[in-house]
Amino acid sequence: MESVFFIIEQALFFALPFYAANMAPVLVKGIPFLATPIDGGRVWHGQPILGSHKTWRGLAAGVLLAVAVVYAQRFVITYYGLHELAQMDYQQAGIWLFGALAGFGALFGDAVKSFFKRRVGKPSGAAWPPFDQIDFIVGGLLFSRLYTPIPWIFVAVLLVLTPIGHVAVNRIAYAIGLKEVPY
Predict the structure, then answer these.
(1) How far apart are CA 36 and CA 45, in angstroms?
(2) What mean pLDDT is reported for the chain?
(3) How far is it, in rounded angstroms, from Cα 75 to Cα 67?
(4) Is the pLDDT assigned to residue 66 strictly greater than 60?
(5) Distance CA 62, CA 68 (A)
């Protein structure tokens, strides 16, 4: 039987592309290229469909960073011989496809949350726990599932640990000036 800590390591390693995709829009927010909102500024029932913070720039950056992370994972597994850490065979994996699904899924989950956030009257940037903390994990898991099976224990681990890590990372990003709000 695998130790609990090793299962946690495996789950977090698997989710690295989701985390990277979720952070990417914040990292590229000062770049004007593709800064157009995905919803084109359209409204539905008096509210933005997604909001001005969901841009093509953030989506592209998230997908590309997720792909880069999957490449890095493959390198780490191969170079250091850490094959037992991997949920899937990164040597045989279609890195572009898996990375794109993981990154797109994470940001799709965030966009779906934003859609519902607007429907309940929450403005862009307003806190909406616990959805702000799990949206990208749920989306990343759902889209990654199209590529590879995911153990249910990974889902449980990620749904428990991600909100804790999300709050901590957002507070750090706020403290160093990458985010305008600490949530």
Answers:
(1) 21
(2) 93
(3) 13
(4) yes
(5) 10
Measured CA to CA, the distance from residue 18 to residue 25 in angstroms comes to 12
| Lookup result for tokens 């709050």 | 167
User: Can you read off the two tokens belonging to residue 158?
Assistant: 């990620």
Q: What confidence category does residue 170 fall into, taking pLDDT thresholds of 50, 70 and 90?
A: confident
Q: Which residues contact 168 (CB under 8 A, 6 or more apart)?
A: none
pLDDT of 129-157, one tens digit each?
A: 999 999 999 999 999 999 999 999 999 99
Q: Tokens at residue 151, please?
A: 């153990």
Residues 112 and 134 sit within 8 Å (Cβ to Cβ): no
Q: Return d(Cα 62, Cα 136) in angstroms, integer.
A: 11
Residues 6+ apart with CB under 8 A from 69: 16, 17, 20, 99
What value does the CA radius of gyration of the chain take, rounded to a whole number of Å? 17
